[in-house]
Amino acid sequence: MKSTFAFELVRHRNRGLIAAAAFLGVVALGLACAGCGKHEVAEQASASSTGSTVAVPAVQSGTTSGTEAKLAQQSDEPIKSEELVPPEVSAWAADTLVAPGSVIEIQAKSSDDVTAVLLRDGIGRQQPFAFDSSSGAWHTFYRVPMRSEPERLGVSVTARTEHNRWRRVWIFFNVQPEDAEE
User: What is the pLDDT of residues 38-47, one digit of tens each?
Assistant: First the structure.
């Protein structure tokens, strides 16, 4: 009787181990399948983001990011609409050596599709450019901050189109130390 009881105990324990192994196998298989599905979705998303098809909805929604613009430019597919091409802009100032507190005029030339040009500095100021139809150029005035810690000041000039495509260029100024003015 004792041997039968021991045999049943071992058999019952083996069933438990087999059931646990089968359960772990099913869980591992489920995780592997779920992982493969996510990988495939990620591959499809990255494959579609490199084409110009992602840039079209971004333009239609009115927002673009720098990453989407770079992806659209790096694509091997041809650009199928002039709306997807970012504008061209160049900006300059008469002098790059400036004094704190001085006012400088910044001008920009752009492609014909540009609807707005905006100047930004690194301290949170931004201001729009005005378009001069007689010269075909954009211009604005900018006051150099009094407390310009670095000796070099950079401002960005961003041109935007009606389809919210944009291009940014930078102008750098050398700021004279305040004691050099005296």
Answer: 444 444 443 4
